[in-house]
Write the structure tokens for this entry.
Amino acid sequence: MRNGLRNILVVIIIICGFLYLTKYISTFKETISDSNISDQSVNVNNSYKDDETNKDIKSQLLLVNEDHSLEQAYTPKDLTIPNIKFASGVSNEEKHVAGIIAKPLEQLVAEAKKDGIILLGNSAYRSYKTQENTYNNRVLLQGEKLADAYVARPGYSEHQTGLCIDITNQGKYFVKGTKEADWLAENCYRFGFIIRYPYGKKNITGIEYEPWHIRYVGKSAAKYIYDNKITLEEYLRK
Ligand SMILES: [Zn+2]
């Protein structure tokens, strides 16, 4: 009889232990899936938050042209190498972009690929020092007048902002009429980019037409600029 009672107790303890374990495991599973869900929602909330805060809008609309220069010490926030393919021979520095444009740029390149268009990064961030070296070398080779016609003086290149990138294609022949340049011109605004130096706008931008140079300005500004066929200078004046 005593043995019988002891056996029953042992069985009850085992059952209780089993029930406790089952409950513990299911709570554990819930905790894991909850943390996954909250991670995802954080990602969703973070995407394109740049279009929403005033501080970010101000920084993504930074104007650099022959009348507006950057200080030597200016470096972009959160410099990072985006997860895209680059053309051969691109320096490590030129692969970097301001953190704010990395995701939109990756999305643009991925979306192009879905349409059968292969876009390659060619030149993004250039430091003041790099621009200074490039400019000085050109002056040595061709003199100041010709250097000024083709190379921005240090502090006057938009590439120092990290908000722009020159795109190319596999043949490194990125001109109007190629399917890559045409796709970029028609679609980059969807990701917050503009063709910064459009055709026929040199009198406003100070730079000849460059179908390869895209500049991040955020989705709403990009759409307005695309719809109205204007430049960043005109957008900021409106
Ligand atoms: Zn450029």
Q: What stands out?
A: The chain has two domains: 1-46, 53-237. The longest helix spans residues 2-46. The pocket of zinc ion is lined by residues 159, 164, 166, 213 (CB under 6 Å).
